[in-house]
User: What shape does this take?
Amino acid sequence: MRAFPLSWIPPLAGATDMQLHNGNAASDRATHPYASRYGPWALVTGASSGIGLASAEWLAARGLNVVLVARRADILSELAVSLQQRFGVQTLVVAADLRDTEDVQRVLQESDTLDIGLFVAAAGFGTSGKFLDSAIKPELDMLAVNCSAVLQMTHAVAARLRARKRGGIVLFGSVVGFSGVPGTAHYAATKAWVQSFGEGLHHELKPFGVDVIVSAPGPTASGFASTAGMVMGNALTPDVVANGTLRALGSRMTVRPGLLSKLLGYGLSTAPRWAQVRILGSVMRGMVPSLK
Ligand SMILES: NC(=O)c1ccc[n+]([C@@H]2O[C@H](COP(=O)([O-])OP(=O)(O)OC[C@H]3O[C@@H](n4cnc5c(N)ncnc54)[C@H](OP(=O)(O)O)[C@@H]3O)[C@@H](O)[C@H]2O)c1
Assistant: This one.
């Protein structure tokens, strides 16, 4: 497995002038209620794109320092500089391939000395098409990123949060995580795993002051669709998903961020489970060219 560089980037000199100019100094942000509750550091996986990137920006805007994790080090480094300049926060870039348990362990080790109060597990990807037409390697990779890495990182971070008696964990399920979905059967199963795992942890960690939420977005315009081989019509923006999710932490066990997620989610939930499977199978036939 390729070795990735680590870089810690302190706030840039001169950033203060810009923050004061914007009337929103870093010290004000550090005392933002969200930073007081879930700071001073957040660990965000999937920070190079889509929902993870939008989450990192949302958190930095509220004064949290951010550990940025994904494979694409160049994008993470650019984002780190941008977050420092705009929000005066500190950043740590850890480029890692979350398919690899040793890389996952390295992320945990390299962020070990930071006072992490929030874990946002946004790294993930999907596959689509008929399961038996798929090669097994991408499916195993998806299981590793969507489930094993989430398990390994949550186990370590949750222990730290429980010890400090304060913090939050944000997991990303999906609107397809509530039933079987022909045409993306294994991806939907990974999201069902996340949904179940998060619901259980929500109650286990509540007595220790640790909030856990599962976000179940509908289609979102990000890098997801092209990786998954899907074509999306209506879609949410990553900003709407990040905002709806992070705002709901502490008050909900599951959130359906944005109107489209709510319409799809609550619409489907009124149907019996066998009907949900058939409806979603039909939706997937419209979204996956190889199924047509
Ligand atoms: N978009 C949707 O329609 C939608 C709907 C419901 C749920 N979700 C879920 O939301 C989460 C975020 O997805 P998104 O829409 O933001 O997709 P995205 O734009 O494709 O972003 C995925 C992120 O995961 C990272 N990632 C993928 N494989 C990785 C690996 N092996 N190691 C480390 N990082 C990896 C990518 O970074 P690198 O490529 O740089 O490694 C990227 O930052 C996923 O769990 C997805 O299943 C998405």
Summary: The chain has one domain: 6-291. The beta strands are 6-9, 41-45, 65-70, 91-95, 116-121, 167-172, 210-215, 254-255. Residues 1-24 have pLDDT under 50 and may be disordered.
